[in-house]
Design a protein that fits this description.
With 75 residues, this protein is mostly beta strands. The chain has a single domain, classed as OB fold (Dihydrolipoamide Acetyltransferase, E2P) (Beta Barrel), CATH 2.40.50. The chain has 1 helix and 5 strands; from the N terminus they run E-H-E-E-E-E.
Length: 75
């Protein structure tokens, strides 16, 4: 399994592009410098009135399929 930790700061207005389908994926730079891309729908449960903020852990299988996305801290 592959694990990627990264920080996100997405306002509610920015997330509306994902919600409306204008953007399907989120791209972030992991703490180790790698670029990760994952489906925006994985973030829906993490949306708060002020957007999405904090550190997250993305877990993927060996074929790069997303298994889970968990919030690991807040700013």
């Amino acid at each position: 399994m592959n694990r990627y930790a990264f920080h996100l700061h997405i306002s509610t207005e920015e997330f509306l592009d994902y919600y409306r389908g204008a953007a399907k994926a989120v791209i972030a730079r992991a703490h180790n410098g790698q670029i990760v891309q994952f489906p925006a729908l994985l973030l829906q449960r993490h949306v708060l009135p002020d957007g999405i903020h904090g550190d997250f852990l993305l877990v993927c299988d060996d074929n790069h399929k997303c298994i889970s996305l968990e919030k690991i801290s807040t700013p």
